[in-house]
UniProtKB/TrEMBL annotation:
Catalytic activity annotation: 4 hydroquinone + O2 = 4 benzosemiquinone + 2 H2O
EC number: 1.10.3.2
Gene Ontology CC annotations of this record: apoplast
Name of the molecule in the record: Laccase
Length: 567
């Protein structure tokens, strides 16, 4: 009776008990997420958007390294939803990872699901977002993971910290945009505006009064937790007249380096220090799209916020804009990303796999599928598609994790190839049309527990070469190499950085180029890997990994929680 009273009291305080064995229990923070339609006004018009708790962007989650938190998700919206905790490895706990039809079926309107978010080595900035259709445009928020109590940042403590979330806004309903794009087989309509912390900024109509303002004191240093939540675009970001110092990315610390601008992929987070060391005034913070592919339609507008110094001074009437790189400046994009290095000190060591047991070579392609009477909106009446190793992923009818765990036959096959079926000049300007048509299927790749995996991602110029920000659930990986053009298996590995490569969960494979990543498959479960340009993911640029159980309870998938959403 006493134990029951204690449990009820803790639940009323918004806590839950997690127990290891019988005697070791700790209270974990508990959040409530209510997904609901909320009216928001942007660009002179109002529309209903899906939000969490009526907020856009949604609430920030706070944790410390190694914590576990509980989130009760209630779907009071008008369509299916799932929530993904982007970059949280969720050791042995794929049940709460979130991608629809991969680790769970969606939470239906009126339904609910309690998700357990288990942090391990992550430290810095991550984020959460919807992982169903394109609802992450408005269902999203930051995750801040502080060092353990008694530990400190590996850089001087900032005066204050601010999340800066880049996003996109469409005047049309996101559900209708998704359905129309899938039905007609063409490119989605480009966004109506980019956003900084939910606001378009001064350069858009009906937007100036609500422009986000970042208030600073002269001489103080600040930490910006930069998140790119844009649905379709890699972004350039800069602060006029102020340099930033990169100190982390994807909840992993980096060697500090100074830059005038940042390149950040959808899904990626970057931690930045800057010092308010300029003449007190108003300065623009700005972001715009980077698009490396030729002929790709994109939103060419610029979103702004205002960096405003506190105090009494005479400000200029118009803030100065930063000098952002040109929209197609691939050199600037890869220069920034290629400058990332792991901190690799005594307190933050690296563990780069050296002996590779599972080498994989994955081509990333935009493709086309034939349409009856050439009636689709893709090139020459075809339907746009995308693939990895010429396989365009097809969602199953029930989630792959459930099918794997309960041995349900017929849901997926395990024949995903280690290498592409055909070798050709992947980045040539003129490629034969027959190469454009992929195979379709629900194929998965099986990885042995503790396998050391190397993936060479090779972009191709089929249909339209493009950058591909690849995100892996359940792991962080070391980015050991990259280059433009075709990967050379004899020469390029000689240039790998095995000393201090960045540890990331999302990396942009450059347009018509390659990137090599390495990781150890020490997290049993079903884990999704996909391009974080949502149009490419929806077209099938996805791979599902099944990491087999190891020996012993500590190397096996946890049992499913109660209340999994029905299929």
């Amino acid at each position: 009776m006493l134990a029951m009273r204690i449990l009820i009291s803790l639940q009323l305080l918004g806590l839950t008990l997690l127990c290891v064995g019988i005697f070791h229990c700790q209270a974990s923070p508990r959040y409530t997420f209510v997904v609901e339609e909320t009216p928001y006004r942007r660009l002179c018009s109002t529309k209903n958007i899906l939000t969490v708790n009526g907020q856009f962007p949604g609430p920030t989650l706070y944790a410390r390294s190694g914590d576990t938190i509980i989130v009760d998700v209630y779907n009071k919206g008008n369509r299916n939803i799932t929530i993904h905790w982007h970059g949280v490895k969720q050791l042995r706990n794929p049940w709460s990872d979130g991608p629809d039809y991969i680790t769970q079926c969606p939470i239906q309107p009126g339904g609910s699901f309690t998700q357990t978010i288990m942090f391990s080595s992550e430290e810095g900035t991550l984020w959460w977002h919807a992982h169903s259709e394109w609802d992450r445009a408005t269902v999203l928020g930051a995750i801040v993971i502080y060092p353990n109590r008694g530990a400190t940042y590996p850089f001087p403590k900032p005066h204050a910290e601010f999340p800066i979330i880049l996003g996109e806004w469409w005047k049309e309903d996101m559900g209708q945009l998704y359905k129309k794009t899938i039905q007609n087989g063409g490119e989605p309509n480009m966004s109506s505006a980019f956003l900084i912390n939910g606001q378009p900024g001064d350069l858009y109509p009906c937007s100036k009064p609500d422009t986000f303002k970042l208030m600073v004191d002269y001489g103080k240093t600040y930490l910006l937790r930069l998140i790119n939540s844009a649905v379709q675009e890699i972004m350039f970001f800069s602060i006029a007249n102020h340099k930033v110092t990169v100190v982390g990315s994807d909840a992993s610390y980096t060697k500090p380096f100074s830059s005038d601008y940042v390149t950040i992929s959808p899904g990626q987070t970057i931690d930045l220090l800057f010092t308010a060391d300029q003449s007190p005034n108003h300065y623009y913070i700005a972001a715009k799209a980077y698009v490396g592919g030729a002929g790709i339609v994109y939103d060419n507008t610029t979103t702004t916020a205002i960096l405003q110094y506190n105090g009494n001074y005479t400000s200029t009437s118009i803030p100065s804009l930063p000098n952002l790189p040109s929209h197609n400046d691939t050199k600037a994009s890869v220069h920034f990303t290629g400058s990332l290095r792991s901190l690799a000190d005594q307190n933050h060591p690296v563990d780069v796999p050296r002996k590779i047991t599972t080498p994989l070579f994955y081509t990333l392609s935009v493709n086309t599928l034939p349409c009856l009477n050439n009636s689709c909106a893709g090139p020459n009446g075809t339907r746009l598609s995308a693939s990895v190793n010429n396989i365009s992923f097809v969602d199953p009818s029930i989630d792959i994790l459930q099918a794997y765990y309960y041995h349900v036959n017929g849901v997926f096959r395990t024949r995903f190839p280690n290498f592409p079926p055909l070798l050709f000049n992947f980045t040539a300007q003129d490629l034969p049309l027959y190469l454009q048509t992929p195979k379709q299927g629900t194929e998965v790749k099986i990885l042995k527990y503790n396998a050391t995996v190397e993936i060479v991602f090779q972009g191709t110029n089929l249909v339209a070469g493009d950058d591909h920000p690849m995100h892996l659930h359940g792991f962080s990986f070391y980015v050991v190499g990259w280059g433009l053009g075709n990967f050379d298996k004899d020469k390029d590995p000689l240039t790998y950085n095995l000393v201090d490569p960045p540890l990331l969960n999302t990396i942009a494979v450059p347009v018509n180029g390659w990137t090599t990543v390495r990781f150890k498959a020490n997290n049993p479960g079903v884990w999704f890997m996909h391009c974080h340009l949502d149009r490419h993911m929806s077209w099938g640029m996805d791979v599902t990994f099944i990491v087999e159980n190891g020996k012993g309870l500590g190397a096996q998938i946890l049992p499913p929680p109660p209340g999994m959403p029905p299929c």
